[in-house]
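Handout, section 4.2: multi-component inputs.
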Amino acid sequence: MNLILVTFIILLAFTSYYFGRKKALVIQSSQRLTALPKFYGYYLAAWCAAPALIIFALWSVFEPSIVKTFILQDYTDQNLTKNELQLIYTKVKALAAGTYTGNITNFLDESANKYIQLKGIANSAKVAIILAILIFSLSFAYRSVQKNDRMREPVEIFLKWVLFVASLGAVLVTIGIVFSLLFEAIRFFQAVKIFDFIFGTHWYPAKTFVRDGQPDPELMKDAFGAVPLFAGTFFIAFIAMCVAIPIGLLSGIYLSEYAGRGIRKYAKPIIEILAGIPTVVYGFFAALTVGPFVKEIGNAMGLEVSAESALAAGAVMGVMIIPFISSLSDDVMTAVPQNLRDGSYAMGATKSETVKKVIFPAALPGIVGSILLAVSRAVGETMIVVMASGLAANLTMNPLESTSTITAQIVVILIGDQQFGDPKTQSAFALGISLFIVTLLLNVIALSVVKKYREKYE
Amino acid sequence: MSKIKAENVNVYYGSKQALFDVSIDIAEKEVTALIGPSGCGKSTFLRCLNRMNDVIEICRVEGSIKMDNLELNSRKLDVVRLRENVGMVFQKPNPFPKTIYENVAYGPTIHGIAQSKEEMDQIVETSLKKAALWNEVKDRLDEIGTGLSGGQQQRLCIARAISVSPEVILMDEPCSALDPIATAQIEELIDDLKKEVTIVIVTHSMSQAARVSQKTGFFHLGKLIEFGPTDKIFKNPDNQQTQDYITGRFG
Amino acid sequence: MNSFKKNLLKKRYNAERRFQWYGKIAIGLALSFLAVFMFQIFSKGYSAFQKNLDSNRSSL
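Output:
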């Protein structure tokens, strides 16, 4: 029913576009048009579709809750809790749809009939109202088309509002995500002290699982210390950057200053393939190839190496990040004005001296920006760590042992069985928001650094 | 005395020829001006004198350019040493995004000219004094060079060029981005500098060429049309084309 | 041209060559990572397909 209604509105809008344009051509024969003929079409189509669709959307949003209030009115005298009322309403709906399998009481049956009746009224009312609005707004718009009013300005104002609503949507979604994270995290921090979370050194949420009743508060205190996770996250990111910064930076320098046009044209996109490989694939590469390789080498040197090591995960992550640094630093160094290079060469500097003493310092803010973006990517990376570095949150600085990161723990917490009110589940949100804050900070710093760099040369 | 002697220089950008058989004798400790309409090849010729055309991949230079009997247009030539002896000042002031001190110390540092901090300070001071910039910047040597005004930046670039005591300085329209006062300062500077160094200046402004130079060469469509003492070129040129250009009939 | 400057010039040209090699090695490493990676994925993937076919055949 809804689908037919929406399709009808849209088809009508298309028709009125053609109709409006045709009307404009008719007007053209007797008087001067106020805008291009297509604006007459847009005007009519917008007046046709927008009011009807807005009313339709509002109706769809409010209808269920209004129907619910009507149904549950009959139960107000029974002193039921909110949850029980919700259960009753679900039963009524299921009964009305014919999918209810439980015990059918008279009361329920009556409610279900009432529900079907209400729905029917609502539907016919909806169709009637929307048709009325269509007729009203179309005739209004048609009259102003006939009067040859200004057409372009209203259409442009309308488009401005459409764009505004679209961008508002994007902003609201972002705010919604942040707030849902925040609320769950606050609930978590009601169970676990924020101090214990930030400074505790033991992460073992499984410990708090109790079959019935509340977990022991003493136990809670020692189970949600995020220090090992933060340490592991930054440790693995550090290893990754140790691989990615030298290789990425030197490749970027070579590409921008030494490589001929031919090499640059091919080498750059080929290196960028590294960033396009799915991280899961990197993950099993790290777990099945690099991990055992590191272990073998370690064993040959007489070192104790676990099969899942921070080194393997970090190194593979570093390889993944190389193109971020090489491409971005290549771009910022190519953007350094040629006359600075000329100035340096004319002083008798060699190419490497020019790079080290003039181009690199001039491009440094941009390069720092690219490195910070790469770090935030490394901090947020999940799959490689889950697959290659293990899931036990060890507090260690030994790259040959396994450690875990914030992202990997979120995965561990949220796969498998969980209960929503459980602090173990909620701890994922606390981790999520702390990760969000870290990467947000890194991004803000990176962007402001890059902005500063732009101001210097433009 | 002749400092640089160019014979039959031809320059090609890809398949396009930019200079045709240019032969010129540049005298020592004089200012030689190269004038001509835009695109006539005067800058291209200037860039041959310190091999800056090497930077452009498709550029090819033929012919012989000798400086004190050293062949400049040779593969065996060490461009680093050449450029230490032949400085260059560009059209647009291009100080490095470093401090004023570092800008001037750049050349002496890479060429290992100063043995100590004191010596370096001395070089920076004399270079800035010679470039008539010392009094304006002596209290802010650790400020960024790009923060100076356009004229000051250009004088900083001149200070940078003379910091390694070159024998020749090439100037590629050094005043085209400057206001008249800054231009006058630079011209005065050129007059002082010619006591010690040979200067070759490319300029758009004929009055500037007349004011600062002793010899003038007129380029047109990649050819050196006429070359001689500035007085003669401006008052009594041999060639009709030169006459037309000087009097503003074309260009 | 004194000997000090001659030595310095030699050093500068060596540094130049060395720096260029660093760049080449970095590019080479990045490309070889990609090559090793592709090789591993495709060789392992290929044999996995082979095995799958064999087991299908034996089960038939």
